[in-house]
Amino acid sequence: MIRRALARTFWACSRWTLRTEPAPEKPTVLLGAPHTSNWDFVLMLAIAWRLDIDVRWLGKKSLFQGWRRPIMRGLGGIPVDRDDASRVVEEVVAQIRAGEVFGLVVTPDGTRKGHAHWKSGFYRVARETGMPVTLGYVDRTTMTTGLGPSFELTGDVSADMDRIREFYQDKAGHTPEHRVEPRLRDESGLR
Question: Which of 7, 79, 93, 191 has its CA 20 to 30 Å from the CA of residue 55?
Answer without folding.
Answer: 191
